[in-house]
Amino acid sequence: ERTVQRTRVWCDERFNFQATFLQCLAKHVPNIYSAEMDPLLEKQEEMVQAAILYPLECYLFGEDPDIFLEKLQQSGTSQLCGKVFKGGETTYSCRDCAVDPTCVLCMDCFQNSIHKNHRYKMHSSTGGGFCDCGDTEAWKAGPLCTKHEPGASGSAKENSECQLNEEIMEHSRRVFPSVIKYIVDMLIWEEEKELPPELTTREKVDSYYCVLFNDEHHSYDHVIYSLQRALGCELGEAQLHTTAIDKEGRRAVKAGHYASCQEAKEEIKRHSENVSQRPLHVEVLHADVMAHQKFALRLGSWLNKLMSYSSDFRQIFCQICLKEEAGSEKPCFISKLMLWDAKLHKGARKVLHELIFSSFFMEMEYKKLFAVEFVKYYKALQKEYISDDHDRVLSVTALSVQMFTVPTLARHLIEEQNVITIITETLLEVLPEYLDKNDKFNFQGYSQDKLNRVYAVIYDLRYVLVSKPTLWTDRLRERFLDGFVSFLRILTCMQGMEEIKRQIGQHIEVDPDWEAAIAIQMQLKNILLMFQEWCACDEELLLKAYRECHKAVMRCSTNGRSREKTVFHLCGHTLESRPYRVSADPVSIHLPLSRTLAGLHVRLSKTGTISRLHEFVSPEEFQVELLIEYPLRCLVLVAQVAAEMWRRNGLSLISQVFYYQDVKCREEMYDKDIIMLQIGASLMDPNQFLLLILQRYELADAFKKIKPTKDQDLIKQCNVLIEEMLQILIYVVGERYVPGVSNVTKEDVIMREIIHLLCIEPMAHSAITKSLPENENNETGLENVIDKVATFKKPGVSGHGVYELKDECLKEFNMFFYHYTKTQHSKAEHTQKKRRKQENRDEALPPPPPPDFSPAFSNVVRILNCDVMMHILRTILQRAVELETHLWTEAMIQMVLHLLSLGLLEEKQQLQTSPEEEVTFDFYHKATRMGSSALNAVSVLTLLERLKRVPQLEAQKDTVNWILQMFDTVKRLREKSSLTTVAATSGSEATKGDESTQDKEKAERKRKAEAARLHRQKIMAQMSALQRNFIETHKLLYENTLEAQGKEDAIMEEESMSSTIDCSKIALGPKRGPSVAEKEVLTCILCQEEQEVKLESAAMVLSACVQKSTALTQNRSRILELSGDTLDPLFMHPDLPCGTHTGSCGHVMHAACWQKYFEAMQLNFRQRLHVEQIFDLENGEYLCPLCKSLCNTVIPIVPLQAQKINSEDAEAVAQILSLARWLEIIIVRISGYSVKNAEENLPAFTNKGMGNSALEFHSILSFGVQSSVKYSSSIKEMLILFATTIYRVGLKVAPNEADYRIPMMTWSTCAFTIQCIENLLETEGKPLFGSLQNRQHSGLKALVQFAAAQRTTSPQVLIQKHLVRLLGVLLPNFKAEDTPSLLEVDMFHVLVGVVLSFPSLYWEDAVDLQPSSISSAYNHLYLFHLTTLAHITQIVVSSATESPTVQSSDNSEEARSAESFCREACQYTSGCFGQDIPGWFVWDCVKKGIMPYLRSAALFFHYLLGVSPPEELLQVSEEGQFKALCSYLSLPTNLFLLFQEYWDTVNPLLQRWCTDPVVLSSLKGKSIAIRYPRKRNSLIELPEDYSCLLNQASQFRCPRSSDDEQKHPVLCLFCGAMLCSQNTCCQELVNGEELGACTSHALQCGAGVCMFLKIRECKVVLIEGKTRGCLYPAPYLDEYGETDPGLKRGNPLHLCRERYRKLHLLWQQHCIIEEIARSQETNQIFFGFNWQLL
Ligand SMILES: [Zn+2]
Ligand SMILES: [Zn+2]
Ligand SMILES: [Zn+2]
Ligand SMILES: [Zn+2]
Ligand SMILES: [Zn+2]
Ligand SMILES: [Zn+2]
Ligand SMILES: [Zn+2]
What we know:
The protein has 1734 residues and is of the alpha+beta class. The chain is 51% helix and 7% strand. The longest helix has 54 residues, at 980-1033. Bound molecules: zinc ion (ZN) (7 copies).
């Protein structure tokens, strides 16, 4: 009702809406936004809605806004998606369909588009762009996703989209202008104290804010510091302010009277100026001004929301924004805002840009009008941007890409707005400060930031040119040419810029800045190419552009005109030229004009338009010598740099030369210079051309006469120059793979590039891509051709896939390929020669026949057979033949041979295609002619024959032979037509002669090959002998499992001779087999000395690493205790939540050697920087001296006590010692102790029902005792050291050698480590015995023996106490208060504990006794049987809640036994335990569930007793394994028989177990017990397609904060939790330390060790504790078998199962810490990273 009233008020005064609206604002806005310092945001929003927005909407819509907007929403949405990207959001581009790479889709649209199945790329948005779904100009196909397709949203009404009725339109036209005007007025409001009069209503109060603005100059810390100092506020408050300023762009930091705010302003300025030279931007604003500005932005987002509802709203809005006041020069609203953009703060800009996106950019027609406005003010906007200091994404100029890349819009802007000219003029206007006195650019002392901003303008040029027009109008032609001419002006400023002069004598003092010029060159590369492409679209245009470019080049070619021409003679030819020396005169590598001209020239040639060139450039004007002059100088400069003549000019020149030829620049630098020389060679007289080359290379004298110089440096220099020149000549004649130079296609060119790359070595896809030039769409064209020339080889578990060249492409190999660097050249040559050798072929690598020149270039070949060339070739050959060693090099000869080959190939080709008399190319003739009339004159051919005898040129012999054959071929071709008969005879003779020499050579080669083979064999034999020795000496290190197994076999064979096989493979009870205890001789890896492991000797130790582990946990939600101060680790919960794992790398040392090494290492590391991040020295960490694994302790190696029992004696004992009797004895023994040590307070127990108690407390000793083992003091010391480490690491407590929990931890790590290994063997599908890695085997052996021996270093009373507590689980009537119920304890841990502690019962005050072998055998047997009974009961009870899903009629003996067991158990559970569960099902559960326990027990007893296991356990076989395990462990295969056998003893036990409340509650289904077998942990399932993960990440919301800031979602691979990493919002305070989300998660999830996937970056992170971590490649590969860290390449990625499995093993083998340490040792970069905050 209230609203209706308000609305009526506005309606009544409908003729003055604006006044009413402003009155309303004037009244409410200052009140609503009064509490700026500490605003209640929700309250504010509520008030805004109620007082202003709701009434406004009511008026606008004429009905309830919610209902109206709902209706509007229903009626359909726009066809454009228009989603604006935040920074970090993933965008997708289709390489098949996108018009250019700036066309992108949001994740939603992409997933619903056809492009999902195309070749797409994924990228991270830098923010500010928007989704192009629906823009038909952006996509060649599939412009709409299914979501934005018309009619897709259910309503079939196409384009009937929410036609607003006239009334609402009318209202909009009335409301929008006022709203927009208010927004514009307030945003550009500059008065600090006053408001516009129409908003000033109330009495002005003295209430001001001191407002701080953000900039990119001051760091976070600077601002915090300045605020703390200036305002005297707390750190927290200053941080709060700073974060807000960074996010929003401005914030009130103080409220108060004008004077106090003014004072604060000055203070802040002063302090900030002190820390960073520049003051912060601070303003004092009146509270009302602040309030209205705030509300203006709120209105802006209100409009923004409204825009999404209806096209009509958008159109009305745009019309009003574009409306110019009649007769006024003032810009329209939107232009005003654009022009003000650089002055707005961040928050305001965001609102403005979003509004532009949601209105103008959603309506094509208005986008065009907006673009026109944008171009109108383009210069001003860019200049503002360049002097602004905000990021580009925050500037309105960044919107250019949205307009300029739309082809029709770009064309319109060129035609109507002359945008090319405007952009180039802008460039010229923003760069003048870099112009020198000659009007050339010079970027010395440039500002990187400012130039980066200039690049944005260059980019705009690229956007405008990115799509070539298909339709040319006269106007377009004219405007484009205007633009081109304007662009030439920029190139003119670059032509010859940053000239350099060779430094002589002294080295330059400072390297000049060269990066800026090269960077601009890189930026311009594609623009230059695009201009050339555009020109080539149209014949007329091309010629005109050529004329303009030619003019521009000529204008710049004035250098040296003042000098007198000189004359140069050689071989009867003369060259007149103006003197110029690269080595003495200034030279520049920047020649974009010349190179553009070269580019246009080849396009003229390609299109054939060159025939009309004379109409546009007269031959007199053309002056080819002048055109090639500058490019030639540049090439000479490169040669001189190679000859080290420019050494003193420093590194900057080397870098420039590098980029000149590098793939990033070469297309518009080096390549074009070669083309320019080809143009010269095609148009000049060949002799003149070569004379010019000789002169510019400063080699005129070198070919005239031999100067008797003695200066070795000068000779060397000259030789390098000759090589460089010959190389360039080879390129000029031979390099024809450019469309226009010859008739090749772009594909041919790329194929050739790839072939030559792969001739060096097989390469990865990304490596090839990086070596190929990219076009304007960032494409190399690689995919189209790669399969034609190469085959893909998949990668293994590491490394990457590579492409290998197909054999048929090898013939294309050209050793002098012009894009080879020197190293690539020699590598390729080496590879190819090696290959030919392996194939037993000759080593000649002649050039492949090049394609024919196109007509315009056909004259180039004439330089091959001209006089000067012959002179050059002859001179060099002669020097070689005459052995003037210092005047020639092998490389030179190679090049000469190459040139000869080219000449012969050319002549051969011509002879084959045209009649002999027409072929004027007479290379053969020239080469066989004498050089002069002198007496000693010889021909090239003769010299070549002689060359074969030059010993230094042995390697070139095959090539020389090939050329000689070519001579012959050409000769025959020549003679064939004229003297057929003569030619035939002489030809055949020649062939014969040839053949015989060929045969001879073949034989020779064969002999050599044979010799080489023998030599190789010898070497191999030596090597393997060495290897054998090595293995011998390092036996322990290299013993592989096979060998180990073989050894065991051998021993077993020995054994089987003396005793029967049956009893030798049983570990427990009276039939126990003998221990296989070999004499162990180990070599210390430190001192290399051997020592036998003996009880009485000094200790030997294994390096080891103890760590907490959750690898086996069944319950990740359980909260782990971070500190074990109060933990009692005696009983392990069956969930196995967290255990202590002991691993070893298997390397042995003397304890003494290790201690020395350890101390030295600690000392050394304490001096190294950052070492605390690799090693936790306090915790005893060190690297294994041999394999560099991370270790934190050592395991002492305790020899196994070989035991063998007399089976007859044992059988005899069996008669008396039944289980019942044995139990009786033990109980008596324990009660005896308890009586004796009453003060020890052992648990009281009753022994009622245990029959006669006539037993004496010493009876236990009567079945056999022996004296205890004595360990050397050194072994004892190590036993204590290691046990203490386990205790310290496992419980995370301070070391304490006397703590009562040390033995418990010892047993626990022993049991846990065995369980881990059992688990690992099962998951890897390996047999239980014989397949362990050597390090696992020796580690486990040492660990079990240690665990058995550790007891002797603790007080026996303590051990007894622990034993009694453990037995509480197993003995009837023996329960103590803290005895856990059957369902709360892991039986394997109990087994290990009782077995290892049991000998303590034999301990007597005076003598240290231990059970004899026979006693032990019984003890082990009964203890094991008891735990097994308990475990079976556990399994049955925990599987009771389940019922079978299938029926079975199994009525085996086992099933029947199970059934009868269940009946018994049923009575104790008062019916909870279903009697109806079929026996076969129970048996099935037990048989499956007990396996891990039996396997672990077998491992344990094997390593404890050394009894060989049955053969079946050395293989993988399900059924055989069960039987073998039962036999090894003395169990009946029908396990329920155990219950029957011991029924009397077990009955009370079963009763106790089953009646436990915990058990009953589980049986009633009230609590869930762990099921057996336990699930085997694996890393979480990952999706096959990586974009699914990105999708998940995009939906990720931080659980703690709601802002739209960019998040770093990280996935825990252990549990699948998605975390918000590296962000303060999710930091956790743990023990007083701030930990990042990952680090704190890892403490719980992986007990400190964890594995994460950083989703946005596609990297795996391993972390350990708070200080260590490393990156690891993610298990995702692209189709080329490569990973993509950081998604830099953006190819689609797919899960690689093998690699993921490798990660899984890394975890389950407990090697994560090791991997981190290794990586940190090698990659020192991560030292700076604060892992704690991950
Ligand atoms: Zn979209
Ligand atoms: Zn879409
Ligand atoms: Zn596509
Ligand atoms: Zn040693
Ligand atoms: Zn090692
Ligand atoms: Zn986790
Ligand atoms: Zn967060």
